[in-house]
Amino acid sequence: FVREIILASNFGISTQADIAVLLLTLPDLLVGILLSGGLSVALIPALQRLPKSDASLLFLQVSIGIIFLFGSLATVLALKPQIWLSILAPGILPSVIDKQSSVFALITWAIPLSALAGVTTAYHHANNQFFVAGLGTLIFNISVIISLLITRQISHPVLALSVGIIIGALLRWVSQLLTLPKYLWQLSRIKLLINFEFIKSFIAAAMATSLLLFAPVVIRAMASSISDGQIAAFNYATKLVELPVGVLITTIGTVLYPRLSELHIKGKKQQLQEEIRQGIQKSIILSIAVLLPGIWFMDSVVNVIFVRGKLDLVAAQHIVNLTKIALLGIPLIAVGRLAMTVLNASNRTGIVLRLTSLNLILLSIIAWFGVTYKSPIWLMFSLVIFQSFQALMLSKAAQIPWLGNMGWITKQLIFKVVMMIAGMLCVVAID
Questions:
Q1: What letter would DSSP give residue 29?
Q2: Interatomic CA distance for residues 223 and 233, integer angstroms
Q3: pLDDT at 146
Q4: Which among 220, 215, 168 is positioned nearest to 22, based on CA atoms?
Q5: What pLDDT is recorded for position 380?
Q6: Contact at 8 Å (CB) between 293 and 424?
């Protein structure tokens, strides 16, 4: 988040800010897809089922496969950066893209490095080791922050940022390699452990997660058609929401997934339902704890955090308006993410893919009115609508009861929410 503050200070809301955000989008999006989706869903249960020697072999085979797969993807995107730029930012002028084409080509080499870090992270998570994997993101962002500080002193700021991103991706992967157990490299036999079921699970989960994470990227891409700097504005607003979501909600799903997968394998249905119920209740409580003060104090938060350097009060107010709308989606994200975790843990990744695809099509239709009428506010509202449909459909598909004995909406939960609202009203009155 410090990264975003320095980014806003350096570039404000401008075309150059849009380019900087696009450079960070590829590694951020890829890590999200692999950690929250494909690799975690396919690799963690497979590693948990196998003995140590076979788990080591599977880890190495997946790493080699990732090098070839994402190395090939990086090569294609490096040769033709217009392919992904036309998707992520159709509103940016071709002349701007051509001017920065070498930088956009360079950044693609962060793709295989980020993908390999996804493999090592999945291995750590399968063994209930979350701290080291989490530090990888810190290492990556420190590298980006250093590069952003350097950009203030040189004439080619986006080039320095690209180099910082690639170095950060490399250090993140190496830091996790160094913490892997030594027996992982001691192979007693060679046999192919990547089978059709593994590949099918990986593809379905990766595609479903990519579509889910692609929703805000789609909105940002549409916003690029409204005016310069809208990509950056939407990025700052969504990052304000992603911070509490990542710290408080995604963390619950990350820790819960290996546990749910294990209970599903062992057939402990009652214990599984209780874990799901508690997970959603915790997520909802934390969501509302962020939502209530966020709605009222967001103008102060944005002014304290972002108003410096090249970002002025007018730009800050635009970010405030967008963020207040985005905050409404936090409880919906909580329910949707937990429901997706439940479906993935029970190997029902196909359902997640189908429902997310349908919702993304609906999002594109609803959001198109925002582009037509040049309304950034409507674009952000369409993202919240998408999150609503996603939460309802996924929770229904996962057969998560809302009411009743095993439902997550209980008298205790309602009481806690009412007490939080009452407390918030007191704070508002004082303010």
A1: H
A2: 9
A3: 92
A4: 220
A5: 92
A6: yes
- Write out the DSSP string of 227-286: -TTHHHHHHHHHHHHHHHIIIIIIHHHHHHHHHHHHHHHHT-HHHHHHHHHHHHHHHHHH
Is the pTM here over 0.85, yes or no? no
Spatial separation of the C-alpha atoms in residues 242 and 381, rounded to whole Å: 16
**Which pair of tokens denotes residue 6?**
């320095």
Where does 310-427 show beta strands of DSSP type E? Answer: none
Look up residue 187 and give its amino acid: L
Give me the count of residues in the chain. Answer: 431
Give the pLDDT of residue 427: 92
CA 397 to chain centre: 22
Q: State the Cα angle at 12 between 10 and 14, rounded to 5°.
A: 115
Q: Within its chain, how far is the Cα of 172 from the centroid?
A: 17
Q: Give dist(CA 300, CA 97) in Å, integer.
A: 35
Residue 133 tokens, joined: 């994997």
pLDDT at site 420 = 93
Measure the CA–CA gap between 30 and 47, rounded to whole angstroms.
Answer: 22
- The predicted structure's pLDDT at residue 82: 73
Contact 384, 329 (CB under 8 A): yes
- Quote the pLDDT of residue 297: 92
Q: Which of 201, 179, 188 lies closest to 123, judged by CA?
A: 179
Ramachandran assignment for 25, one of left (phi > 0), alpha (psi -120 to 50 degrees), beta (any other): alpha
* 139 and 168 Cβ atoms separated by less than 8 Å: yes
Mapped onto helix, strand or coil, the DSSP state of residue 405 is coil
Which tokens go with 75?
């090569």
For 153, the enclosing helix (H) or strand (E) is none
Residue 155 vs residues 24, 161, 168, 208, 273: alpha-carbon distances, Å = 20, 12, 22, 40, 57
Q: For the chain, list residues with pLDDT below 70.
A: 30-42, 84, 90-97, 187-189, 192-193, 195-196, 198, 200-202, 204-212
